[in-house]
Write a structure and sequence with these properties.
This protein is of the alpha/beta class and 317 residues long. The protein has 8 helices and 17 strands. It has a 7-stranded mixed beta sheet with strand order 5-2-1-6-7-9-10, with helices on both faces. Strands 12, 13, 14, 15, 16 and 17 form a 6-stranded antiparallel beta sheet that branches. Strand 6 (81-85), helix 4 (93-96) and strand 7 (103-107) form a beta-alpha-beta unit. Helix 1 (10-20) packs parallel to helix 2, helix 1 runs parallel beside helix 6 (161-185) and helix 5 (119-125) runs antiparallel to helix 7 (217-226). It is elongated. The relative contact order is 0.11.
Length: 317
């Protein structure tokens, strides 16, 4: 089957790689424009662009999918189908209409739960025990189209967004090829998304990465995993920004020395392995932390160069 592919990050790159190894023909690739990234804020190419260039595929990087130039480029390719995976731009109705078979999308959740931009992070943050991949027929609405194929994936208790991504990405690539094969053979069947259970996975913001110690330890632990490796949760200690990469819940019943619980954000214990912090409900052990300009360190390594004392309050103004 002749198709165009639209995608940007590593998740999408695995789909493009699978397509290039399949019997289906990728006629061209759309990906987001190069953008500044990293400490040097240098222009960075997407994972999809690197694969497309290595394969010698025609490549287009529009800011928006509008305008005669974009439409003419896609029409000239003569593709029957558009495959979209983590592209990052909305696909307008006129673009969907260009393809005889429309467009299909590889989405990292079990729709209708977690439609939107950040399904992997939101599933971890919510404490979901399962997520998965849905291949759906695209409509004008955001992730509203009928599901062509889906498969569940367990969320492990220690998963962060990278480890879960790394299991979902190859699953998505496998299901994508299955859907294309079935579409070509005429055996594909779709099912409308149910009305119940819809949740929207809002885009992750840097503001929500700032830890609010008044929340429960369980909520904070999930947020820390969900926002690892980006944007990474943060707090402050005596005016210094501290990033928190890893943490674990303290079992219920750990004794505190004082009759009254410590205020939220207070360091109540310190070992070589962890800083134990009081939360709005429960206690959290911070195990891998980072000072601005440094690298992620164990607590023992971190405290060798930065003094942390019992009674210090994280996040204090």
């Amino acid at each position: 089957m002749n198709l165009l592919f639209a995608g940007t990050p590593e998740f999408a790159a695995q789909d493009l790689s699978a397509l290039l190894q399949s019997k289906h023909q990728v006629l061209g690739v759309l990906t987001q424009p190069d953008r500044p990234a990293g400490r040097g804020y240098r222009s960075s190419t997407s994972a999809v662009k690197r694969i497309a260039q290595a394969a010698g595929l025609p490549l287009l990087q529009p800011e928006r999918l509008k305008g005669a130039e974009v439409t003419e480029w896609m029409e000239k390719m003569g593709a029957r189908l558009l495959v979209v995976s983590a592209y990052g731009l909305l696909i307008p109705a006129p673009v969907l209409a260009l393809f005889p078979l429309g467009a299909i999308n590889v989405h990292a959740s079990l729709l209708p739960r977690w439609r939107g931009a950040a399904p992997i992070q939101r599933a971890i943050e919510a404490g979901d025990r399962h997520t998965g991949i849905s291949i759906m027929q695209m409509e004008v609405g955001l992730d509203t189209g009928p599901v062509l194929l889906s498969e569940a994936c367990e969320i492990h208790p220690q998963d962060n967004s990278k480890t879960l991504h790394d299991r979902l990405a190859p699953l998505g690539a496998r299901l994508l090829i299955q859907v294309l094969d079935a579409l070509e053979s005429g055996t594909l069947r779709s099912r409308p998304q149910p009305q119940e259970g819809m949740l929207y996975a809002h885009k992750i913001t840097k503001e929500e990465a700032v830890l609010d110690w008044s929340r429960s330890a369980a909520q904070l632990e999930r947020t820390i995993r969900a926002l690892n490796p980006a944007p990474v949760c943060s707090t402050t200690l005596r005016g210094t920004l501290i990033k928190v990469w890893e943490a674990r819940l303290v079992p219920v019943g750990w004794p505190q020395s004082e009759s009254q619980p410590a205020p939220a954000g207070t360091v109540v214990a310190r070992t070589h392995q962890a800083l134990r912090v009081a939360c709005g409900d429960g206690l959290l052990d911070l195990t891998v932390i980072q000072k601005t300009g440094g690298k992620p360190l164990s607590v023992d390594q971190f405290c060798a160069g930065f003094q942390v004392s019992i009674g210090d309050v994280l996040g204090a103004a």
